[in-house]
Each structure stands twice: as structure tokens, then as C-alpha cells.
Amino acid sequence: MTQPHRVEVVDSHTGGEPTRVVLSGGPDLGRGPLAQRRQLFEREWDHFRSAIVNEPRGSDVLVGALLCPSSEPGCIAGVIFFNNVGTLNMCGHGMIGLVVTLAEFGMIQPGRHRFETPVGVVEAEYLGKNRVTVENVPSYQYRKNVRTVLPDGRQVQGDIAWGGNWFFLVEEHGLELDLGHVEELTAFTWEIRQALERQGLTGDRGGVIDHIELFGPPRDARNHSRNFVLCPGKAYDRSPCGTGTSAKLACLVADGKLRQGEVWRQESILGSVFEAEVVRILEDGKIVPRITGTAHVTSHATLLLDPEDPFCWGIRP
Ligand code: PYC
Q1: Ligand 1: which atom is nearest the Cα of residue 231?
Q2: In terms of CB atoms within 10 Å, which of 10, 76, 173, 202 comes out highest?
Q3: Of residues 91, 14, 20, the one with CA closest to residue 58
Q4: Predicted TM-score (pTM) of this structure
Q5: Burial of 6: CB neighbours in 10 Å, binned 0-12, 13-18, 19+
Q6: What's the rounded mean pLDDT across residues 270-299?
């Protein structure tokens, strides 16, 4: 009998959205820029991705974080985030979950730490008491007031923006953003996602718009807005979405609705909150967003990957 391969993971959630950090037992992707190692991970290790986050060990909503050595000077680690259908460019809630995990296991102290991601270096500050501020990659509004047409002829207007992933941000939709309407919200945003693809609408340089974000009034008067975010594999983000909030800030600044240093409190569909602000506006007009949120560790486990198990590599479509 072969021994199962052992993978040490720590699970956490950030405002309700789960992250599973692979501490050991992950593939060795070598050295070199993380963007290249991400491609190798996608090409050769997709079965591992699926084993970690998909059923029967995980679920559609889980985001994985593979810790790697960094190739960038000054970074303490590299991280490749992944989900039920592939890898992510960046992940804000995942970065908050990762930092709280590393702090809880004594691997970092309160203070600032830099991480390499496939789309740039991200600085995170562990503030103590489960709180983390993430200074995300430069974010920008790419196109404003873009119309897409759904199969029933309805037109939906939104902005295309980058916040570490590509987003389509919609203000006018007439839907209630609450948990009682998740099925309707998922169906609507999935239709938008497919319509964008059919019409060849993308981010800069053909970037696939794989996150759809709806906005509405907050439930809590201390907040500025509530959102519903559809993720690439059709799960919705339980947190306010760090990269989505970064994209939102970029649009607010581009539209003259938010200034550098002003705080934007983004509420999720669950009511959990990210506090966000623009810390710098770069010469090319891109913004540097800062997102603060809270994560809690929920488990520390050893996953057993037994190749004789017919579902060892997860349930994949
Ligand atoms: O927080 O950036 C984020 C995120 C992306 C997908 C799920 N969460």
C-alpha cells in the first residue's frame, strides 16, 4: 500500500470568505518570477489545486494560497492564490487570511511584510488582533459606461476596472443585495459574465473579466456601499472582496467621487466590512489602494492525498 501524500494546511476566513494556506506538502515550482511559476502550476499541478480546494476536501467557495519562496528582493514569500476553477492574479481577502495565519503560527510579527504575487508586490501590515492592512497593486478604471446585452435583450451598463483582477462594476441593476436573493444575484451576474465574453469585452490586453460586482446602498449607515461579487468559478465572495474594493476605489477616483486619504467602507453581502482608502495616485493616474480587514483561523489540518482514492484529485467539471 502506498502512503498518502500529506499536505499541511491552515484554514481561515476573512469576513466570511475562506482561505486555505498550504504550509507544506505543496509542489516545488523552482525559482524565477512568480508569474512564470504560476504558469507552471497551472500546466503541471492543476490536479493538486483541485485536490486542495475542491470537494470532497473543500468547496466551491474556498480560495487556496500556495506559499513559495520569493524571487523579489525584500519579499518574505511569494503566494499563488487559486480557486475551484484555476488560479487568481491576486486576492485581497486571501492576503488578509494569509497574514493572520502566519502571525498566528508565529511566522511573522506585527509590522509590514512584502509578498510577491504573480501581478506584483503587495505590502501587508499585521496590526495585531487579527487585523491586516493590504497595500494592493496599482488599480485603475479601464473603461467607463460599457454596455453589455443579455440574452433576453436587457442592457446592463458597467465599468471595467483592474484591482488585481478584472472586474465589471454595475450600479444600476434593480436587485436586492441580500442573502435571500443569492440565487437570483448569481444567475444575473453569471449572465453578465457570459455576455461580456460573447461580445468580446475584456480588460486591457485581452484580460478576461472574470469577476462581476454589483453595488447598492449599505445596510449599516456607517458604511458607504454594499456589494455582491461573483467569482470566476460561480461562487460569490462572502467578504467585500479586496481586489474588487480596489477596483471600486479606482472608479470612484476616476469619477471624482473619492479623494486620496478619504475612507471608503465597503460592506459585503454578509455585512462584513473592508475599510479602504487611496494612499497614492501615480503619475499615470493609477491608484494605490489600501484595504483593511479581519481574519480568523478556523482549522489546522493535514490533508491526505491517496492516489488510490478515486476522488483524490477533487471533483472537477
Ligand atoms: O478578496 O480579492 C479578493 C477576492 C477575489 C476572489 C475572492 N476574493
Answers
A1: 6
A2: 10
A3: 20
A4: 0.98
A5: exposed
A6: 98
